[in-house]
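Subject: sequence -> structure tokens, single chain

Hey, anyone have a minute? Need the predicted structure for the following. Not urgent.
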Amino acid sequence: MILITGFLCPPQPMAAPKNTTNPFTQKYFPLIILLPIIFWAFAFPFIKIGLEELNPINLTIMRLFTVCAIFLFIILIIPKKFSALHKKDIIPLFLLGFVGVVIYHFGLNFGEQYMSASAASLIIATIPVFTVIFATLVLKEKITKKIAVGIPLSLSGVVVISLTGTSGNPFEITYISAAVAVLISALVGAGYTIVGKKLLQRYSALSLTVYAFLFGCLGLLPFLSPSLVMEAASLTWKGWGAVLFLAVLPTVVGYVLWYVALEVRTASEISVFLYFIPVLSTIISYFLFHETITWLFLFGGALVILGLIIVNKKHSTKAERG
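Reply:
Had a minute. Here:
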């Protein structure tokens, strides 16, 4: 059961802060950070598949309600793995989940309907930039020289990929509201990492992710409509496959591992890995939708990878000294 200190049960001693170095996480950090990136890259084409049968709101609801069902099951089978939930954190956790997850997916799903994938990915690529800005202002993280070089370098690679890496009009935007929606998603996506970094001082990565989703998804209730039942009833196996894939791998696994990585690295350092998503998404779309890839895509991808190497070289050096 979820323990709410000072609310449903007497105050209980809480585990030590979770930001201490975890040897296992440090050792397998490349795999821990790579898996969410791969799953999130696959999410873009699967969102496209889901939107063929569901409207943006209903796709978000079905995806996130499935996630909540999985998280509730996890709580039931391993309750002792969860940190005690403090009454004072209920509102922050709701806002973290609703704004950082629900609003993010509403904006992204809406935007993908009315703008090209290249334009959407270019706007989403601002997340690491916003994360560094917010981390500096809120978390007081220092912008090192390697972060200052690596993030712009990776961003330039994303720009090359978005504008010239595939065929078609990269600036295709049917409604300006679509671009605004995706920009809002980028802002709240950065906020999700920053607020999560602070709350990880009191909760484990698993606990924080589960609590944020369960409380945040309560905000979906006003969006329930008869169309959800109608669309769900007519879903094909392809539509159900997209919903289940989006719920399990990019969301349940991806979001938990993202916070696991955030336990041992700064928000600025892990945010740069998000630049690898457009690279993988384009490759995936090439195989799934036969989208054309140009040589400039390879150049842009090389810039993204080079930026990742520069940012993370600093931490490797530290590890060797320690």
